[in-house]
Design brief:
heterodimer; A: 380 residues; alpha+beta; 12 helices; B: 86 residues; mainly alpha; 4 helices; 0% strand; globular
């Protein structure tokens, strides 16, 4: 098995990401959550670090880091702010799809602006009546001359308010659902979706496309075979990123709980001395370690281009998202009323963690997929 | 890896995921009704791992991946050799 070497990472690694999160994210993330937006200046700092260039090939101005490193970076972002990690996730999904499935012209046109975050990207699959069920997609792409006219509504689009490039899945008359690169412009409207349960600063939007005219170069992927590949492989990258971000939430819950429990006294003794507290802490340590190990396995398999990464990523996301939700619930419980107030980030972790059980494949969809895989792997 | 090895590995790869599948080497597996996009990703990764290189975008066509025979032909072409006939 080969191991990818980050010879072009340009300083983008876990250590650099951790420093960035400690210095610029952790102290401000609650305010971003309340304001429901991340300041442009912070996104520019993230761009300087290379967050948006991570999956861009070097020849197009990117860092082209290994999947292991990408996972480390997204874990650290998730430790500080799931909204920021979510923006990095969807941008990376589109960047990765462009780098892998795009034509040379498409790569040259888009990737140099995507790498420094001058252009941000959003992944547009979900619709009001179509979540994971792509057969229900109603957005249409009608042939017009050599290009297409796109109409439809996409919703729950992370980063939609900030994006200038949208990877839109739309139904065609003859070739099913195809992926299109749509630039912000005439006919493209984004509206905020405020007051969500979690990831409130992730620029979530509803995207309305009205008679949007695109050229033949908007179609991503070379053939009828490619649309499924584009969608499934981009979702795989997204799932991996979310899984790693969940490990970040786990780590944040652990650190917050340890800090609080060794200063807070209950009945004359420190909270940390109570066995029920110790049980929660022990579970968080174990879950963080296990989730990180599952993500590392998925990342190693991706770097080795081993197809087993697909199922390893499902398992990593399934475990880490559920563990993060449990750890966040325990962290709030341990903090008591303080944990329910806006004065402490565990309330945000709790809300964000719940979202992770729903996005990039719900817990229930993961259970089905993993169980079906097990059924085929166990011999009769 | 010989063409024969690859042929049996491809068949094993598909049957590992879809044990109920019953198909000839030249039969279109996408018309059998059990293939999904997740499998497509795994199949391309498997072929690329076998080749040790990425399959060029222009070769990512349904026709190149629709049967064991067509995949063997693709691999042989990308390796610069003629596929063994049988």
């Amino acid at each position: 098995m080969t191991t990818a070497i980050d010879c072009h990472a340009g300083g983008l690694d876990r250590t650099a990401a951790r420093r960035f999160v400690d210095d610029h994210v952790i102290g401000a993330a609650d305010a971003w959550d309340r304001d429901q937006q991340i300041p442009r200046a912070v996104l520019e700092q993230a761009a300087e670090l290379g967050v948006f260039a991570a999956a861009v090939p070097v020849e197009h101005g990117g860092r082209s880091v290994s999947m292991r490193t990408l996972g480390d970076v997204h874990e650290e972002l998730g430790r500080g702010c799931s909204s920021l990690r979510s923006l990095a996730t969807v941008h990376t999904m589109v960047v990765w799809a462009l780098g892998r499935w795009g034509s040379e012209d498409q790569r040259r046109r888009w990737l140099p602006a995507l790498a420094p975050g001058e252009t941000l990207a959003a992944f547009c699959l979900s619709e009001p009546e179509a979540g994971s069920d792509t057969t229900a997609i109603e957005a249409t792409a009608e042939p017009r001359g050599e290009g297409w006219t796109i109409n439809g509504t996409k919703t729950w689009i992370t980063g939609g308010l900030l994006a200038d490039l949208f990877l839109v899945f739309a139904r065609t008359p003859t070739d099913g659902v195809l992926p299109f690169l749509v630039e912000r412009g005439p006919g493209v409207l984004t509206a905020p979706l405020p007051d969500m349960l979690g990831t409130r600063a992730s620029a979530l939007a509803r995207l309305t496309l009205t008679d949007v005219e695109v050229g033949p170069d908007a179609l991503l992927g070379p053939s009828r075979f490619a649309p499924g590949l584009v969608m499934s492989s981009a979702l795989d990258i997204g799932r991996y990123s979310v899984a790693c971000g969940c490990v970040g939430i786990l780590q944040a819950c652990l650190e917050a709980s340890v800090r609080y429990s060794r200063t807070r006294k209950v009945g004359g003794s420190l909270l940390s001395e109570h066995q029920l507290t110790q049980q929660k802490i022990a579970n968080m340590v174990t879950a963080t370690t296990a989730g990180r190990a599952l993500c590392e396995r998925a990342g190693v398999l991706k770097d080795a281009r081993d197809e087993a990464t697909v199922m390893a990523t499902w398992v990593a996301k399934y475990y880490s998202s559920r563990a993060a939700a449990q750890a966040a619930a325990d962290a709030v419980q341990l903090h008591g009323a303080v944990g329910c107030s806006p004065a402490h980030p565990v309330a945000r972790y709790y809300r964000d963690a719940k979202v992770m059980e729903i996005i990039e494949g719900s817990t229930e969809l993961q259970q089905i997929t993993i169980a079906v895989s097990a059924a085929r792997e166990v011999p009769a | 890896m010989t063409t024969g090895d690859l042929r049996s590995d491809l068949r094993a790869f598909i049957l590992d995921r879809f044990p109920q599948a019953d198909f000839r080497d030249d039969e279109n597996i996408f018309e059998l009704g059990f293939i999904n996009s997740l499998f497509s990703v795994e199949l391309v990764m498997f072929v690329e791992a076998t080749l040790g290189v990425e399959v060029p975008n222009d070769d990512l066509t349904l026709e190149n991946f629709e049967s064991i025979t067509s995949i063997l032909a693709l691999v042989a072409r990308l390796r610069g050799v003629e596929p063994a006939m049988r």
